[in-house]
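Quick start: read one record
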Amino acid sequence: MSNPVSYVFSCIFVLLAHGAMLFNVFYNGSYDDVNAVFVLMAAVIGLDAVYFIIMPFFRQQTYAVDFMLILILNMGLIFQSCFGGVDFRFKHFITVIAALIACRIGYFVCRDHRWIEDKRKLIWIGIGILMGIILLFTGSRSMWISIGKSTSIQPSEFMKPLLVLACATSVTEQQKKHKLLCFNVVYENLILFGIVAGICLFQWWCRDLGSIPTFGAIYVSGFLLRICYPKGKYSKKPIIIAVAVLAVLAVIGMIFAPAYVRDRLFVDIWSDKNGNGYQQSQALIAIAEGGWFGKGAGHGFLHNVFAYESDIVFASISEEWGLLFSVMSVFVLLMIVAIPLVNPPRSYYHGSMCAGIAAAFSVQMALNIFGSCNMIPFTGVTLPFISMGGTSMVVSGLMAGMLVAAQSPVFRAPKKKKQEQKKPQPAQPQHMQSAPQQPQPLPPRQDVPPQPPINYTLTDRRK
């Protein structure tokens, strides 16, 4: 740990934030048995303490995202346990723990960019396998697979981190251009376009149009970063064609959208308060009644409306805790995605991965919040880390772990090929071994004729 003092103060800050919320529940909450409040307190504070003890065992360059993650996860647990009365939500508590475990998995998998880039084709295959699982096991045009009577999973959620990795691992391939008709193209880009187009068509077939903007945002962020790649050298012609194709597909999607989607696009919620506008009208009324500081934990009415804990959870929080607290929760979510983007990127792969996750979280937050406030058509998308939902919570934790990996990456030099060692020749049998050679005598020395001695004395030439 590089800075123990900062770590301790961060722990104290998170404990104080959760303690203040729990004191508010105890003082202003609606409950019949005070033991329900104590159980909630023990779960939240106990999970904080265990998390703070375990985290130093993971060597990281920074723990900022981890502290924001545990802060928002336990805030969501307190929210979910107080809607309509204080009652500890054990199921949501389990999903919070699962999200923290998924965060560690995402952290270990995505740290080494060379390792994950070598698995690029497996990522593409994984997206196809998820589509096949949905088609085989849902039994209808649905995205949910039921397990038992009270449990269901949504495999399509796992396509989000896979699409992020597919976009991030293709950046370095932008230098490998090939001539196709009259264009210089990168085969990786064509493959990614086919993948995202297939995902969008698949979502339309399964009647889950609300998730299409999230997948589109991931792809667009990755496409823009591939354009900005220093050695990519994109021309304007493919970009203009790509934008035109996306615009045409959007228009076609709106024309052939199901009837219930077109009704949501053009519905007047106040003239149809008991029909398609019921949820949004009740959400707006709850936000207005909650005001800045809310009615108090458990004193709201919105818990009687369908999907109060998931699709319109922003309005449910605003009613009981106040609009000010709802905005603060959204600010924590924005901090989770902003911290990795503000810090200098460790590599182009890690920067692309952070941008894709930030795009996914930002679009999900916008769809949930603006849909609850009737600023856009209601989509039914969950709010990350807060809404009730096991699959969504686990995938959000996995993507948060990918952000942590971008802050503490691992760079390993490529392995050098070992030089082939010369194999020793096998020993020959005794009868095949040649006798040891005797040293050859030197050739006789040729005598050099003697030279007359040189007289170095001075002679007297006088006669």
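DSSP finds 16 helices and four strands in the chain.
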